[in-house]
Design a protein that fits this description.
319 residues; alpha/beta; two-stranded parallel ribbon; 11 helices; 42% helix; globular; binds nicotinamide-adenine-dinucleotide
């Protein structure tokens, strides 16, 4: 079986491709954009390119024709779509980037899935679709009608667009809602990377909502386990569409997260406590019982273990 993984040079795409390449042929695509340092993307790719069953094409999601050729040439019937403009805060000043990659780009993926009779399209959604829903833990059928940011709106749109394609064209689709993913080779725009970098460089950390955010921080290997588990769990209902949360199920305060980093680095941070930012959600907490029931999902890495693994990687990578 050959799987097309979009966004393979990204944080999650890299780890997922590394894992699945031992079982399947992986064709990866990515436009290697400069939302954050493309060197990190290139270094992830270097590792992937050493694997025998991995091939890479540098392409934008908007290039329908070229992606169509790649799908046909490689006889692809399975797609895991991770490429997107990520990040809640960046969407405040750059909604257009989200419209292009997440809405137009996603439409291309749906059309390509239809035209090529894809057997299963698994795609990345986010815990941000829950907005400030307070019915914790958040279940897949909880209300997602009030996204607080355009990033969340773009991902919610993906879910409803895919639902209609599942209904009309019978394309089996699975949306996976990730909850704050962290780990080695993580994104420089996310808290773990930023906090670590600033502590080491003695710079001030902007701590929004005074660190009182709660996040269901989920270690990358658990996210990969969840995605790998749903790949062969093809929805068979009349409308073959399914949504799963992939989280840790144990929310922690951002300030605790920072304290764990300080403990391992053996160094105190300098903090600027700031109010809640527009578009930010106060708390996320995943109910993962559906994924547990369907694929036996069980998150394995505690936040202490996960942060330690990240810091070990960080120190080695930047030495
Ligand atoms: N990391 C998280 O905590 C998290 C949480 C929820 C959802 N997600 C979603 O998971 C997916 C992967 O996230 P990530 O953290 O690995 O982000 P990432 O930015 O590291 O990876 C996304 C990759 O997609 C590529 N890309 C973006 N736009 C593209 C386009 N138009 N054409 C081709 N390639 C393009 C980027 O170059 C990047 O390498 C995204 O869809 C993101 O929205 C991530």
């Amino acid at each position: 079986m050959t799987i097309l993984i979009t966004g393979c040079a990204g944080f999650i795409g890299f780890h997922l491709s590394s894992e699945l390449v031992s079982k399947y042929k992986i064709v990866g695509i990515d436009n290697l954009n400069n939302y954050y340092d493309p060197e990190l993307k290139k270094n992830r790719l270097k590792i992937l390119k050493n694997k025998r069953n991995f091939s890479f094409y540098k392409i934008d999601l908007l290039n329908y024709k070229k992606i169509n050729q790649i799908i046909k040439k490689n006889k692809i019937k399975h797609i895991i779509h991770l490429a997107a403009q990520a990040g809640v805060r960046h969407s405040i000043n750059n909604p257009g980037a989200y419209f292009k990659s997440n809405i137009e780009g996603f439409f291309n993926i749906l059309e390509l899935s239809k035209v090529n009779k894809i057997k299963h399209l698994v795609f990345a959604s986010t815990s941000s679709v829950y907005g400030d829903n307070k019915n914790f833990p958040l279940k897949e059928n909880s209300n997602t009608d009030t996204p607080l940011s355009f990033y969340a709106a773009s991902k919610k749109s993906n879910e409803v667009m895919a639902y209609s394609y599942s209904n009309i064209y019978k394309i089996p689709c699975t949306a996976v809602r990730f909850f704050t993913v962290y780990g080695p080779f993580g994104r420089p725009d996310m808290s773990l990377f930023k906090f670590t970098n600033k502590i080491i460089k003695n710079q001030y950390i902007n701590l929004y909502n005074r660190g009182n955010h709660e996040r269901d921080f989920t270690y990358i290997d658990d996210i990969v386990d969840g995605i790998a588990g749903v790949v062969n769990k093809i929805p068979k209902n009349k409308i073959p569409f399914k949504v799963y949360n992939i989280g840790n199920g144990k929310p922690r305060k951002l300030i605790d997260y920072l304290n764990i980093i300080e403990k391992f680095l053996n160094k105190k941070s300098k903090v600027k406590k700031l109010p809640l930012q527009a578009g930010d959600i106060v708390k996320t907490h995943a109910d993962v019982s559906l994924l547990k029931k369907d694929i036996g999902y069980k998150p394995k890495t505690s936040i202490e273990q996960g942060i330690k693994k990240f810091l070990d990687w960080y120190v080695e990578y930047f030495k």
